[in-house]
Write a structure and sequence with these properties.
This is Secreted protein. Pfam families: Abhydrolase_1. InterPro entries: AB_hydrolase_1, AB_hydrolase_fold. Keywords: Membrane, Transmembrane, Transmembrane helix. This protein has about 425 residues and is of the alpha/beta class. It has 2 domains: about 70-145; about 150-410, Rossmann fold, CATH 3.40.50.1820. It contains 12 helices and 14 strands. Strands 7-8-10-9-11-12-13-14 form an 8-stranded mixed sheet, with helices on both faces. Strands 1-2-5-4-3-6 form a 6-stranded antiparallel β-barrel. Strand 4 and strand 5 (about 120-130) form a beta hairpin. Helix 5 crosses helix 6 and helix 7 (about 290-300) crosses helix 8. It starts with a helix and ends in a 15-residue tail after the last helix.
Length: about 425
């Protein structure tokens, strides 16, 4: 290199390698090669990030992340209090579940006793410890699921099995008194379990509804799908269809679907595609995914993933050629699950309860769906509840809204063309 720098360009010897090229030309070519290599590396890095993003969305987590720190447990006679690191979750009033020791431990956490912003700590009441030793816990995760099973709430339940594609999906059956014509089928969210739905059983029983708290493919209880991947609602609805069939075989004449988060997306697909969709009387959806494109763009932004990379990840999910990279056995049709665009196609009466500060599933698609189809969709906004914890923050309001709305939907209906005063059916 030094000899080239000392040689005048016009006196450079011609060789097969240089072909008489000037120093400036050779530097230009070298720069182009280096630039294209860098572009290739950046493109490869973006592709890898897009693949990672897409796979993370559809791959069930084997273990929840323990991201909530326990600082101390204080015992006061038979009662306990817990000092927690102050976070966006632990500083919101209400009642919650706290899981620790890898999920083996479970406590029910109550009201805030004191909060120190300066020390970033919060003292909360411990209402119950169902499993494990909370005093030995150092880390765990926050949850909207307060109770471990129906018995902990005081409900008598049966463990039943729903025949599904690859075996049997366990479910809790909580019977209403008498003969219930209408059953409530409850569908938990992504990464959650049927425990999440226990919050809705009380209102359902008050309305005379028998409740079936479901599991579905890839949730850790039901059989896994062939590809072991979430379909984001595009495949899971088939397990809900099977559950409706089970309910009909066991005395139900119609059903109400309850869904949380991705469970809401699953319910919407069942109402659209299931062969029993005409028997779905109504849906109650808590923080539902109305538009996956919106949710995925939101999560790309949260994780500081460039929007173009995020869109590339979405393309991989929906394109047949993306299956080799994502592990999906079939593409996920995100457009078919965009209910803002398909608003007028929704013909099942639907109540949506959604907090405006939801950090996981933005609320605006829920509000837009109600705005575009007010005949079928009722939207109720909550505040300071974050994701799927509307009941935890304000159980009285949540239950009041659900019961009042469902009473209207479940009221006897007149026969088509019936005259006023005629007997309803």
């Amino acid at each position: 290199m030094a000899s080239y720098l000392r040689t005048r360009p016009e006196h450079t010897a011609q060789t097969p390698e240089t072909g008489g090229m000037s120093l400036r030309t050779r530097w230009a070519i070298a720069g182009a090669i280096a630039g294209s290599s860098l572009t290739g590396l950046l493109a490869a890095g973006s592709s890898a990030l897009a693949v990672y993003f897409a796979r993370r969305v559809i791959t069930p987590a084997r273990q929840r992340t323990s991201d909530q720190e326990v600082l101390a447990v204080i015992r006061d006679g038979q009662k306990q209090q817990v000092i927690l690191a102050a976070t966006d979750d632990t500083t919101v009033d209400g009642r919650y579940g706290f899981y620790f020791d890898g999920g083996k431990g479970h406590a029910r956490i109550g009201r805030i006793i004191s909060y120190s912003p300066a020390e970033r700590t919060v003292l909360r009441e411990v209402e119950a410890v169902y499993a494990g030793d909370l005093s030995a816990a150092r880390w765990g995760w926050w949850s909207g699921a307060l109770y471990p099973d129906p018995a902990a709430v005081g409900y008598s339940a049966e463990e039943v099995a729903i025949p599904v594609e690859r075996g049997e999906a366990p479910a809790w059956l909580v019977r209403a008194g008498g003969t219930a014509r209408t059953w409530a089928l409850m569908v938990h969210g992504r990464g959650a379990s049927r425990q999440e739905a226990l919050r809705a059983v009380g209102p359902a029983l008050e309305l005379g509804l028998t409740s079936l708290l479901l599991s579905y493919r890839n949730d850790g209880l039901a059989p896994s799908a062939d590809d072991g991947r979430y379909g984001l609602g595009s495949t899971e609805w088939q397990d809900i269809e099977a559950a409706i069939g089970y309910a009909l075989d066991n005395g139900a004449e119609e059903v109400v679907l309850f869904g949380w988060s991705m469970g809401g997306a699953i319910c919407l697909q069942a109402a659209d595609l299931a062969r029993y969709r005409h028997l779905i009387r109504a849906m109650v959806l808590d923080a539902p995914v109305i538009d996956w494109v919106n949710v995925l763009a939101h999560h790309a932004q949260l994780n500081r993933i460039p929007s173009l990379v995020g869109r590339y990840g979405q393309l991989m999910l929906g394109h047949p050629l993306g299956r080799r990279l994502t592990g999906l056995s079939a593409p996920v049709d995100l457009k078919a699950m965009d209910w803002v665009s398909r608003a007028v196609e929704l013909r099942t009466p639907t109540l949506i309860l959604h907090s405006v500060d939801d950090e996981y599933v933005p609320y605006k698609p829920s509000a837009l769906l109600a705005e575009r189809n007010p005949e079928m969709v009722t939207f109720e906004a909550f505040n300071h509840a974050r994701h799927t914890k509307e009941w935890n923050v304000d159980p009285e309001r949540w239950e009041r809204l659900v019961k009042a709305w469902l009473r209207q939907q479940l009221a006897p209906r007149l026969n088509p063309g019936a005259r006023p005063g005629e007997q309803p059916v």
